[in-house]
Amino acid sequence: MKVLAEFLGSFLFMSVIALMAPSGSPFTPIVVGLGLMCAVYFGGHVSGAHFNPAVSLAVWMQKKMEFKDFLAYVVAQILGACAAFGFGGWITGASGGIKPGLNPVTAADFTTTQALAVEIFFTMFLALVVLHTAVNKKVAGNSYYGLAIGSTIAVAASAGGWISGGAFNPAVGVGATAMGVIFESRSWDHVLIYILGPLLGGALASTIYGIQTVGDEGT
After folding, report:
1. What is the CB neighbour count within 10 angstroms for residue 91?
2. Single pTM value for the model
3. Which of 12, 60, 84, 142 is the most exposed place for a label (fewest CB within 10 A)?
């Protein structure tokens, strides 16, 4: 049931991204954040509502899940992402793919290093919020964790999405890239940014959380 919840939650959340991104709406970051919030409340009591391999990595590093479950979650999240972006591409005819944005100051694309830094930073931000609001035993049973997590993604998408492309999730990076290749003959050139960046961000978040809560029995 947990793995199914991760697949369904990833599909629901990422379908919002896949359908909103081609619209060019300025409200896309807010809608995506709300979509994640809804998905988190849908699956939080079942699987923990990670919907993101970087979040699962942070949780596993905190020894809150077994490695076999971590691997199963990651597979479910990636399959959910591919299904979501495939659905979005079928509906809109344009998956959008994902790549670093254009710097309006230099009139050139942001560099791989800049995009990677943004992916690391905001994924770290997201994973820290998840650990503190949905994993820490001191706040167990709270009703605000979904709002906190969804709001973090809205902030990340608004502040960093235009720079890095705004995955903050390896499953989003793989799903959007794969469907960009299928629907728009795009390339895999940038996919490592959206795999390595978020995973490094998740690992960094877990390390920081461990330092913050060292000796705390309530974690």
Report:
1. 12
2. 0.95
3. 142
